[in-house]
Amino acid sequence: MKNKTIKLLKVFSGIILFLLLTIVLAILWPLPHLKPPARYSTVFIQSINIIDVKSGKIFKNRDVVIKENIILAIDTSGILEAHPSSLVIDGNNKYLMPGLWDMHTHSNQHSEWLHHPLYIANGVTGIRDMSGQLNKRDSYWAGSKERLIWNTELSDNHRVSPRYVLQSSYQMDGAASVPNGFPEYFKLQKREDVDSLLRFYKNEKIDFIKVYEQVPTESYKYLALQAPKYGMHLAGHKPIFTSLEDAIVLGQRSFEHGRIFLYECFPNADSLRTSDNWRKFYSKSKGSMVKDYKPEMAIRLMLLMKEHNTHWTPTLQTLKFEAYAHEPSFLENPNLKYITYVRKKLWWDFDVQNNRNKNLSKEGKNISTDFYNAAKKQIHLASEIGVPIMTGTDVTDSYIFAGFSIHDELEDLTKSGLSNLKALQSATIIPATFAGKEKDHGSVEVGKMADLVILNKNPLEHITNSKTIKGVILNGIFYDSDRLKELKDFTQSLSSSLHMNIKVFFSLISSPLVRVQFAD
Fold this sequence. Notes:
By secondary structure, the chain is α/β, with parallel strands linked by helices. Helix content is 44%, strand content 15%. The chain is built from 21 helices and 15 strands. Strands 1, 2, 3, 4, 5, 13, 14 and 15 form an eight-stranded mixed sheet that branches. Strands 9-10-11-12 form a four-stranded parallel sheet, with helices on one face. Strands 6-7-8 form a three-stranded parallel sheet. The model has no long low-confidence stretch (mean pLDDT 94). Pfam families: Amidohydro_1.
């Protein structure tokens, strides 16, 4: 019996040792570097139809010359000549539009392999990342240091990556969002914390402070007043304890998600802001937010947003997920093959189960669907009033897929009542103008950077034609259809690999920022 026990212990120890070695090897195993295509000194696009996203006109049969990464010339086909060393692209019966921008994403330390290829493959050439770090490098979330390096390497043609426009702080969400061991000023509990936080993020080359729900009102107001003095602005959620009207007037430049008017335009909006347990109050009030919605209040706030040039990024895909998390047809998404097993099991499955239970409960039936549909109506109203709308998807939230989901967002915007042109503008010229980069981006014009998408069909006729991507030009580099398929295959292969899943698992559990976010 003793010998048998010893043998079992040896076998058990051997298994444990093997598993530990496997984990260590997986963590240390180098990941492949994805190289961009070769750069040509000039690219010549022959006889293509150019979509003018400003006017909605189509300029037919135009030749386009790209020098390095700048659009050098555009003219009627046959007038311009290609240099013998140029890369010549046949644009016959194709359509050229500016690269799409996703203005609400969350990048992490594995985005290089799991997100960037899918953005490019789907024609997303620019993104605004809405997450960041505190004063230490995080094992999971990316920060401005990583993103600025990615931008430099993109410019040098050493990296396959979208362009990161505007750099974000970590989400400012009060004391509960800051783990132990980090400076107290990140909690924004006192007025004097504000300048300490802004000085820190100025040194980190941050463009805006990402605000979340639980920023104390006095800290938020002082933050809004001081941020421009440091060359920054506020963007993010509407803080629960501050009215939308006050936040607009104080200068928050963009508001995220489709709930902002539902929060503000029902009879108990003031009680939500002053409740001792706002989450519980919100949960109980969701039905009233739709049923007792006051459109006249929303119109007044929308007019105020227009007056202050305040932008709205509705991220309809997040509300759609909540509305349909109980529907098998929605959950059976072919793009799941691009998502790591670890993320699906440790993150997304919990979200699915939680929202499914709510949707199937007696008290929660139809509420999430009503929220989703109400937000779409409000988007249409806001757009008609003149509130600038920007596309955003909220990658890496549940059932949000890097690159793919922006096309779903464009389609949902048109289903909300926006024209195809307005939907395209929300992903091109409007975000470029918001970022102060309209001189270089946002439309197909001479002198602008060559971040472009070649389509087989015209998205002004049907917005889903934005998916008919024949090629992508990023920073003057051409990705043909074969290369775009390689990008998708690259991420699909890595997302299913053991070593990537182990890396993601350990980066998640090692991140103090992730731990406090889940605890909250």
